[in-house]
Amino acid sequence: MQDIPRDQLTGALRRGAVKKHVAAIHVSGKLTLLQRKLSNVLLLNAYDTLISSPRHQIDARTLCLMIGYNSNDLDTLKQSLRGLAETVAEWDMLDEKGQQEWGVSSLLSFARLKGGVCEYAYSPALAEKLHDPKVFALINLNIQRRFTSGHALALYENCYRFVRTGSTGWWPIELFRRLMGVDGSAYYETFKHLNAKIIKPAVAEVSRTSNIILTPETRKTGRAVTDIRFLIRENPQLAILDMDDGEGARHGPVYARLRALGVSDRLARQWLSLHGEAQVMAKLAYVEGKEGVRSKIGYLTAALDGKAAGETDTGAPPAPTSPRAERLRRILAAVKARTPTQRDADRRLFMSQLADARLREDFERHGWMSPLNAARIAGFWQDMSPELMAETDGE
């Protein structure tokens, strides 16, 4: 809503040499591809406050577009939310003390659409599991967007968290059918059919589409296949899809100057994402030209927030008061108030509306201060939050 925000299914219970617990979360029911994507986006959106907040919100229009729904097709969204609320997640795991823990919960404990906003919640017990990086990893939405098969996405979700160990470990074939959502089908009771219709196509799509490559292996008792596992290796050609938010900024000259000044990696990427390279460069040049500043990082922070003492008295332009400037100020304030995952979703949604490569490049460089997209940005935020632009349209 990873982003973003998920119904990752993990493999069978495994126990490491140092007794770190690894959960096995299984989801009953047969989720469609769009329902899987919806679950992931909702989790990514909620992840930053998953434990601290009992409820979460996301713009319904943004949510629909991020997962491929028609933004006006609220009936389909309602149906999918209902499906998530009716789907059961079950876990079986060892805690830090080695004690067995079993639990069950619906994927969503609550969902509501009101005033163009989707509000939803997870049960406290499930939220705790979803937030634990030892249970599973968030799925990058750049990768999720590329999947066209629900079985392939389900397989990817189950395998991705084992990329560092190189194998999922052995899954009983009955469990694998359940993870793929084909349990209860007499047709897929025959491994020949399961392999031809589910395993081979899903493995091919995961290896072609995502940042990992899978190789299935089976184990037999007599002539019957009883277990399956997947060997996992990184896909070097598509590894770029796994970059975290703001990763591309690390290759720019402004990022290098910020790092040389002592700004942390995360803060540098956050500033560049929020303000754009041009704005950060201007403020950085201003701060670097100041003498007698004890903490240039602190001063730069204040400058980017428009609070640097004496800034307007030393050659920097005074704070503008035109409708356009006020509109931009409100937009940047709205952006800053969003969570990192929401900001990522906003940028992706806006980018998806730019067909012209020149406009996309300008937005990538300048962010929400993109001069070539000023009118489009204003319209975007007007749709997102009509009250935001109130009394600024007199320009």
Could you give the topology of this structure?
Blueprint: E1 24-27, H1 33-46, E2 56-59, H2 60-67, H3 74-86, E3 88-94, E4 100-106, E5 110-114, E6 117-121, H4 124-131, H5 141-144, H6 150-160, E7 171-172, H7 173-179, H8 191-209, E8 212-221, E9 224-234, H9 253-261, H10 265-275, H11 277-288, H12 296-304, H13 323-337, H14 340-352, H15 357-366, H16 374-384
Antiparallel strand pairs: 1-3, 2-6, 3-4, 5-6, 7-9, 8-9
Q: How widely separated are the two ends?
A: 34 Å
Classify the oligomer: single chain
User: Could you give a short account of the major beta sheet?
Assistant: 3 strands, antiparallel
Which word captures the global form?
globular
CATH fold descriptor of the largest domain? Arc Repressor Mutant, subunit A
The CATH level-2 architecture of the largest domain is identified as: Orthogonal Bundle
Structure classification: alpha+beta
Q: Please give the CATH class of the largest domain.
A: Mainly Alpha
Spell the H/E element sequence: EHEHHEEEEHHHEHHEEHHHHHHHH
Radius of gyration: 24 Å
